[in-house]
Queue: 3 jobs
Job 1
Amino acid sequence: MSEKFRLDKGGLINRNKKISFKFNGKKYFGYEGDTLASALIANGVHLVGRSFKYHRPRGFFGAGVDEPYAIVQMNRNNEVDPNVRATEQELFEGLDAKSVNCWPNVDFDIGAINNFLGKFFPAGFYYKTFMWPKSFWYKVYEPIIRKAAGFGAASIKHDKEKYEHKYEYCDLLIIGSGPSGLASAYAAAQNGAKVILAEDKSRFGGSLLTSEVTIGNQSGHEWAEKIISELKSMPNVVVKNRSQVFGYYDHNMLVMSERISDHLPKTDKYNPKQRLWYIRAKEVVISSGSIERPLVFGNNDTPGVMLSSAAKEYLKIYGVLVGKKPLVFTNNDSGYETAIEFKKNGIDPIVLDTRKDPNSEIIKEAKDLNINIKNSYVVVAAKGYKKVNSADIAKISDDKKNINNIENIKCDCICVSGFWTPTIHLASQSGNKTKFNEEIDAFIPSQSKQKETTLGSANGVFTLEETLKTSFETGNKLSKQITNKENKVSVPTVVEKKYSNHDKFWCVPLPEGKNYKRFLDFQNDVAVSDIQLALREGYRSIEHVKRYTTLGMATDQGRTSNLNGLQLVSDIENKVVPQVGHTTFRPPYSPVSIGAIVGREIGKHSKPTRKSPMHYWHEKNNAVFVDAGVWLRPRYYKRGNENLFEASKREARNVRQNVGVCDVTTLGKIDIKGPDAAELLNRVYTNAWLKLPVGKARYGVMLREDGIVMDDGTTTRISENHYHMTTTTAQAANVLSHLEYYLQLVWPELNVNVVSSTEQWAGAAIAGPKSRDVLQKLFPDLDVSNKGLPFMGYMEGNLFGINAKIYRISFSGELAYEVNVESDNGNYMWEKIMEIGKEFNIQPYGTEALSTLRIEMGHVAGSELDGRTIPYDNSLEGLVSKKKDFIGKRSLSKTAYIAPDRQKVVGVVPLDKKTSIPEGSYIVKDAKAKLPNPKLGHVSASCWSVEYDNPFSLAIIKDGKNMIGQKLFAMSPLKNKTIPVEIVSSHYVDPKGERVRS
Amino acid sequence: MLHIKCPHCGLRSQNEFSYGGDASVKRPELNKEVSDKDWDNFVYLRKSPIGKHLELWQHISGCRQWIKVERDTLTHEIFKTLKANEEV
Ligand SMILES: [Zn+2]
């Protein structure tokens, strides 16, 4: 297909490089430097999608981020990307895109029937219609709405692309590379400031790319090129194109999304697709420019109706005609620039100016070019369904209330200009109290909350001369404050055309007897009638009107609709716009991909993985790992065809019968030193610590101030003022912060230092009746007899040349020792233990066997110390000192905590001695009771007791101490199980604790 | 993301810190009689003011010091940061 709408010359595209692409399955050609939009228009394609609510045909309205319609679904390198603006997507070889929001296709869209049923879809339609009956929601309404709504379809596959995050600091972040961005960046860079200049488009220069101005002795475009190349060569300046600053957060933190690869057929090997920049700037210059405002008239959404600035951009940057019989409908001088551009390229436009008798340099130029200008004229309605083919135009009265002499004229596009709206989104996000400027009928930034300055047309300044002057000054001033250097540059002279005043008129009245839809919000299909209805129904606050009608709530954030909506509300309400006020702007300014937000923190990279020094030994010996917080721990060591259940039973049984060894490196360890260390422990733990002798360990429980158990573990007195504390794997970080809190803030008088030593020590627990034999062979010189190293004893030894610390402590309930060596020696220690232990039938055991051993012993752990239980609940009341005070003690006398039927940990055995009880099951008295069946408590941990060879569980149940011997039921609604059980003591094995002392 | 000036390390991003609540709360002294009401106040009851709030943060990924931060809860403006042993 030939490019019927491409000019023979002109534009900034590379005509030497032809590019082929597909749209809705059809092949087209464009050029390097095109966007998908410009290439489609060059090929005469104006129908790109269907509107959100009425499924009306939609084309192109803008030429960049201002585009409300032309959202397409991209298929790039076998990855789909929904919600891409065709006006921002750069063309690449093989690009493949299709329309969204239409079914079965864009030319024949079944949903378009909504358009003819339009009167059934007024504002608030969904609220009113789908209220009742409730059961219809998920069966009838929701599937229909879901099928009909939405832009594009997300992939359900894993995204193969890579995304990165980057943190950056700078003196000045300058957003936008138009005249104000370039001038302020240049002035700041001369003063030695560290500058980041961000441009969301691929080309730098902003309005200078399309305006007819002279700066110094160069055209605006040439001047921009010169400044950019100078900035790029400066070491203190970072210049970024394709980079959208979309969010302005607290303390001058801004976030920018850099599209690194979206314009390429596929992402280069070592590049990410997109990069998210977190930029902390000392000063921010917002030079985001302004967006042309539409004029509102009948069927103003028909393909072929577009912003006049967009039509000019397609001409000047892409050499593309948006039509060959253009109508320019304007209330200000900007429309004339577009008309003149058409004329220069051999096309005869007709200008309809709402103003009666405007006069300015540019109007004179248009007249001199013999352009047909009709004053006091408006477009009443566009005609044509899938493309404009004519327009009803009319004379408008001086008071703008009446239209007369409606006539139909042929045209193939209508370029509208309703003056300019400064882009204040980022300033508003930063907390700037924006104000309404009567002169330009728009909001502009005023009082800054953060370190931000808005310049140029974003600040409502529409002359280049003033923009450059203030921008050079501001760039110089802001940077000078930071660098204390001044290297002032002179402001170049500017030649530009002077503008006359715009007409305060945006909405063409309906002709009698017609009910054309006049759209305000093109993306969300909100028409003038919807706003009128919302106001009739009593909505007053602009925030409510917005939510009821969805005005400005689409992905374009109302860039082209907000102000016309406000003008309309203020007209109907007889208020001035500032009284109505604008709605809140929130990040992101423009859609950001989920991939960019997530960055590299996906899958296993979402958090660090910690491995013990023995990890590779475990791996070599068929360990199956489990996540324990951020640690990887062996869950069991697989032999042959064993499953988890068989392997863990074998390992646990071997501990009970012979000896096992478990990697306990992951336990939290805190080194505590200082003359007041004992006093600190005495305040932190519930039991007494002042009299613990050197060389002894003690088990302790610590509470939060609300009396809930925070953690448990053993602490050993290594020497007079030196203790070694252990915590559970999960709570290690919290316990350290807890100790630091009390030492730094509550009892700073205590002379103690604490530091984490978790990663400094590798630990092995050697447990079982033969563990002493193993230990004796590991340390032949030491007296490790029951007398030499009694239960809760500690000694240091030499393990074949390396220093080791030996703690006689037990989690399994067997005779057991924990040996610690410096981490680097961990694997050496482990291999020695396995080698020496061989003759005693030693086997490594994982966390599953470890759990089995502790559960049948009735040792409480994380599943019981779950942040909801007090010492009594865990049968730890014997460890609570009556004499001394400690953290959380006062809470333990709360009424609920001392209730006679307070919950307590118990053992649970199924009556059939066969059925395992799912963890989380409820314990109830009567399995057949009516729902809701009152529960007594829940099963916290379950295992297969290797001692008795039947299932055994721990549960925390109400009045637990009086429940022993009762026959109850464990019910698991999740697993649909009801199991008759007997309540027994939680100390199922060795209730007197003789083995650990043997 | 806030930018918090640790009195020990300088300006750092919020993600290096963890929040610790109202800094004006004083723990009752050990071994002293405390009424139910006073204890409840200490453990559970916190004000949620609009405006200036003196609060604790720990520079958890930095020097690990607990610090005091005077922050506006509405605007996030930080007026002052102090070491643990300093008073406003
Ligand atoms: Zn610090």
Job 2
Amino acid sequence: MEDITLSINGRNITCPPGTSILDAAEQHGIELPKLCYHRDLKPFGACRLCLVEDEKTGRIMASCVTPVAQDMSILTESPRVNKHRRNIVRLMIAEHPESCIFCSKGNRCQLRQIAAKLGIGETNLYPMPNYKPLEQANPFIIRDLSKCILCGKCIRADHELVVVGAIDYNLRGFKSRPATLHDLGLEYSDCTFCGTCVSMCPTGALSPKNTRYVGTPQRESLSICGFCGVGCSLAMGVVDEKIVEVNPSHLSGTVNGASLCVRGHFAHDFLNAGERLLSPLIRKDGELVSASWGETLEVVARRLLEIKRENGPQNVAFLGSSKCTNEENYLFQKIARVVLETNNVDNGGYVSGQSLLNLIDEKTDGRYRIQPLARLEKEDAIFVIGADPNHSVPVVSYYLKKAAKKGIPLIVADPRRTELVDFSSIWLRVFPGSDLELINALAMLLYRKKAYASDFIIQFTEGFDVYRRGLSSLDLDRISRVTSIDVSTIEEVAELLHGKKIAFMVGHGILQQRYGRESLDAVINLLLMTGSLGHEGAGLYILARENNQSGARDMGAVPYGLPGGQSLSNDLARRQWERVWQVKISPDQGLNMVRMIEEAEKGNLKALYIMGENPLRSLPQPERVRSALEKLDFVVVQDIFANETAEIADVVLPGAAFCEKGGSFTNMEGRIQTFTPVVVPPGDAKPDWEILALLAEKMGYSKHYGSLERVKEEIIGSVPMYADPGGHGYTPWIRETSEKALFRPNGKGDLIPFSPVISTEDEVPDDVYPLTAILGSYRYHLGSGTRTSRSKRIQEFDSKGEIEISPGDGTKLNLHDGDTVRVISRYGVVTRRIRLEDGLRAGLIYVPVAFNDNDARNLIDLAQLSRHDSLGWKTCRVKLEKV
Amino acid sequence: MEPKEVDWGKLTSIIDKYSNEKWGLIPLLQDIQETFGYIPPESINLIANAMKLFPTEVQGVISFYAGFSLKPKGKYVLRICRGTACHVKGGRSILRLAKRELALDEGETTSDYQFTLETTACLGACALAPAMMVNRAYFGKLSPPKITNILVEYGKEKKEKLKDVRDEED
Ligand code: SF4
Ligand code: SF4
Ligand code: SF4
Ligand code: FES
Ligand code: FES
């Protein structure tokens, strides 16, 4: 279609048909007042402030909802337009309450801004404020709907961006307001407290509940959310060097757009918690006492080197953090490998099944990295397996729900009726741990239908013959039995997938299960067979739970690999790093996180340096972990909190939270996001990279890292995956369009092997522990909850992490909502209230983690975790007792 | 007042009738409104599920149209005109009388779910002012005795009796 030419305020403008007058004007730098328009929302035309006049016809129209037409002659500030605009604003203000003066929106209120620009002080109208009770029962959002101007942005944000549907207009006319179902408080609705509507609201009708400070922050800076692997882009509001408010940033092309989740929006008040570490501490006569940085680092350097000299490098271990930056993880493992000459380095992402991230890299030699979530809206079919993204990685669920609403088939395989099930085409209620069988069955049925991509298989893969023979030996009836899914349902799904490229979203239900590796292999097999891996709109998404789970591994903070995802056993890679670092690197794998504890217990480890992790809270059998750590000669804890583990350390180094330092995180898409400090660290605390750089120097390492840039340069220069900087600041370090985003662009590279078809062992019935407990997370906490449980708002929110029990088991055990039970496993006990949950199958219970000092970990055994690729702690056998 | 019992079987069968229709929400709501005299609030979730909408969207539609009500209404809904013509012809005393006879305020329903009293703007029957409607039937040129007769015809028991019942309840 031909472009349209029109004039706006006398300027000739050409734009494609379908453009709104408003967009056309703003693209040419002509600003219009507007209250109900947002670039990410469908235009609505409610506020009428964006009025313009067509000189030729005299027509007055709302420019945000009127498309351009040939030869229009638009005036945005004609006397008539201005008169109408002023009247509209006067009417809005006449309806506004007097509490406007102390409104927390302050100078950011768009209604006030527009009124000021139009020079409206007095309305000269009879004030008709619309009193509505103020709602602030929940700790996150205050609703003062007397200030609502009915722009509908909150509703559209809730429906279009986060797809929750907690609110919509209710009633008509003067009484009309956005309301929840039955007009109850938000806490009784489906609201997830993502706060997206709060950031959208142009007035003070919706505002975050702050206790520290009410009003406009002194300044605002950008950062990246430090909670989950989505890596949302944040705008953090600052007052007196404290973060008082968080909103989604206004940058375009971010992973989260204008949305956030409850953690990102509201849980960052943990930063101001009282337990922040403010100065270095050294244990003297059994007590941790403040000391200077110089003295403390001296002690750390001396003791570590002593132990290395006296007991050998194998007696020192380094536990890094999936929450620290790439630069920090790089330095951390470098100190371990170069200065202390040990491969005993891991990071806390271990317990989230991080090592499985390797699998796809191993198979594709790191050639399959960038998986933008935005592509999800273009997929043929989406298959979510072992994931509850609405809770674990909420922004991912927004993408999935939008895709489903667009009509893209969404298959959800999960033993629980997760919130996503409501949006799915088919829900496969797969028995925990049998996902592998389900995937194989689907592969078999698709193979029978000849739904395989021959060209792709020939060009890129090997071992298809063995694979298909494996498939043909499968017994569908047995699979139906172990997965507890009807044969006909499995067939229905195969039919739905027939001929489609598939996007698999794999979560911790797979990464942390007994057959994690095998299940992921099965998924990759299916992707290869259907040619989905090479397809732009399909492939494998791993829903990383920790913000820098991918980056910590990429930087080599793992016992089996080197920076760049290379394996220690790869001679070529090892030699390359020996050249870069000028040291010898042992090809032997080091200790993983759990083995560190086990070896400490046995007395085979003498020193442990822990950065940004809290193993006493995150690992099972805390008493065992504690006594193991106490056996060590020297424990260093570098953290932001005086957490459980810091209490037993010999030296404590106060680090900085993400927004108090610069660096980069790699999110689950493979997007490397750089950020600069928003505030300075509290007290004497220092950015972790700086602590590490100082320590390396103290230990006599020759290279001097005076700035973050030096570290970054070293990474860019030596890690090919990170060698394609897309610029600095907030542009992703690797661009989506870089070559790495493409899969084998010229068909080069080794062939990708199919993995053999494997079956699970049949479950042995257990009379003593007849139930299977599934451990999982709620959206209000992240990981083991070290940070989120220090958020005042999360504390106040009355979520106790009730255990979910099926109505069947409820009847059998005579349990009712609100009863307290003891959940008993072979290893420990959890006591909590219960809730009967319709979506749960009898025999299964759901135990949310991170509540009550993360007591859920008591149910499992440390040894279950020590095999790195098969953690098997997603589920455990339990029995219930009513208290 | 006892909450009204909902016949769930009947309700789900109505919902099922419309669940595959793309623009089925309004006809579905009309059907429920007509069958039950109101839209039971508990049914919103079911309707939303069947129509693949958010429950709040369904509530928004219900509360937008005056024709839908979330409160149970009586078997007979009296709509007394408050338009200008009726006002001039003494519509106000008609309303006052109806209120007294039924012992109801505007918008209320008798505890036996027989009568609901409402007022409306002009019914479009100004020639017959003062006018009112009972469900879909028009009544014009109203006078106090006529009102009483109409109510008796619709089965209102004698006023005293009604009063007794209320006294017992108190
Ligand atoms: S609450 Fe705010 S965003 Fe929602 S309609 Fe009212 S003014 Fe608009
Ligand atoms: S906080 Fe989020 S879920 Fe709740 S109403 Fe607002 S947009 Fe919807
Ligand atoms: S926790 Fe995850 S989804 Fe929530 S705001 Fe942070 S990065 Fe985004
Ligand atoms: S911005 Fe156009 S009507 Fe509100
Ligand atoms: S004024 Fe009552 S019918 Fe018109």
Job 3
Amino acid sequence: MVEPKVEPMLVAEGVRKSYGSVEVLSGIDLVVMPGQVTCLVGPSGSGKSTFLRCVNHLESIDGGRLAVNGQLVGYREEKGRLHELKEREACRNRACVGMVFQNFNLFQHMSALENIIEAPQRVLKLSKEEAINSARELLAMVGLSTRGDSLPSQLSGGQQQRVAIARALAMKPKLMLFDEATSALDPELVGEVLSAMRALAASGMSMVVVTHEMGFAREAADEMVFMDAGLIVERGSPDQVLDNPQHARTKAFLTKACRPYCRL
Amino acid sequence: MPEDRPAHELPPIPARYPGRRVASVIVLLIAAQVLISVITNPRFKWDIVGEYLFSDIILSGVRLTIGLTLIAQLLGIVVGVGLAVMRLSPNHTVARCAWVYLWFFRGTPLLVQLIFWYNISALYPKFTIGLPFLEPFVSFNANALITPLAVAILGLGLNEGAYMAEIVRGGILGVDSGQSQAAKALGMTHSQTLRRIVLPQALRLILPPSGNQTILMLKTTSLVSILALADLLYSAQSIYTRTFQTIPLLIVVSLWYITITSVLTVGQTILEQKLSNGSSRQAPPQMLRWLLSGIVRPRRNQRLDQKKLESTDG
Ligand SMILES: Nc1ncnc2c1ncn2[C@@H]1O[C@H](COP(=O)(O)OP(=O)(O)OP(=O)(O)O)[C@@H](O)[C@H]1O
Ligand SMILES: [Mg+2]
């Protein structure tokens, strides 16, 4: 399916991360090809959020390597050894990875439009007009072209999350990370966010999605990965993992977490 | 409103509280008694109060007090923001230095600090700018630099900085950390995040206690009378040590402090409203209306309107 020459968008090799003496990630290997959507599922505390935060270097890693689009994130390599970058370089470096959070995290004192144009102006040094033009396009894309002047407190949860997606896209990321983007939403608002994510996937964006929405995973994911206790214990196509899980932990998790979507 | 509708369509009759009315009458009677005695007691010497209220000496004292309050508070805010940012810095040495500053300035009385600064020339007769172990680049004579006014501004401002630092830090910590995470994930640097995302939102939390601090500062400036600076209190003292009209002049002083405090309070209210981006727009004279509303008794249906107003105000 994937041509052999294409460079992978994300390569994680043996990524390790500890908080104090607790090892949260114990060697994660993952490859995401351009345009591929990878869904990450697993029980609470298994390290899914931590892994995403390591990918864009919101957290430092204690071992292994992480490269996005062929470039290390937050580190440079010298004589086979990783050196952490200074804050300023790391910032420029992580701008090519977009991230969407469970709690939207919109800037509360700025309108939807201002939320979107802030980072492109400060980080990419776009002019205000350029930033506003692309922000308007993005707002239209997530179906909110009329709500640009609204403050986050005047928007519903689903609308806020769509603004957050537009805000991340304004940085022209190569890879998008979604950390339980719909978990904080009322059930009737989940759909509008998922359809924005589906449209994004269809447009060819590379995505790593942590989600409990197995229906979305089955339909949009190219690969599904099951994590437990800091390790990837099972991976495969969504149908494979959801309908015919091999590992005992996967079976146990799927029967508990998502009965309606699995034929178990 | 025509009252010919059937009873079940009329609005419910509010409960009556005769006890409350009795309590208001008693309180108002006591207040009236106090007021009358204050006005008629000749020993208050209101004529002398009137004579000095706008005298040149008092007015220049008022000017110094206001100027000192504003400058010292401004210095306090600048120092406070700096210290707060230092205390939250990832650099532990910097954070601890800020902590030691707070520990020192909050641990010693302001009066002691003021006298200490006043006598600093005994400790350091010369001030120099330079690096440790090297010949200084510039040097000043301490006595020329440390005027009473400079001591007052420095003493009040540096001390205020310690308190403002805690207020600002509280404001910064009060802004949801998820937004800083998001800014970081978008590639913004620590200082961009602080300036563009955190501080503007912290301001809303910082402003009300800062208003309090300014009002406190206004009255704290009276301490500088020990430096023989002619502020409001010192000017009044200089008059009554001559004329022995102590009480009337203290009344003059109090009237001025109350007036300035009121002006500051109104200013604070207006500023807060400008900042509270449409979340609850309230007109400033609410306070006055609230004070008078119990005394001028409204008619019944007006009272209902008032109730509705109050419940939407809250
Ligand atoms: N800053 C931190 N300091 C210490 N421990 C942490 C920190 N962040 C996460 N952890 C721990 O790391 C482990 C993995 O956390 P993580 O948030 O990655 O889990 P998760 O898979 O995202 O779970 P959930 O589905 O509940 O979001 C948890 O045991 C958590 O307690
Ligand atoms: Mg998580």
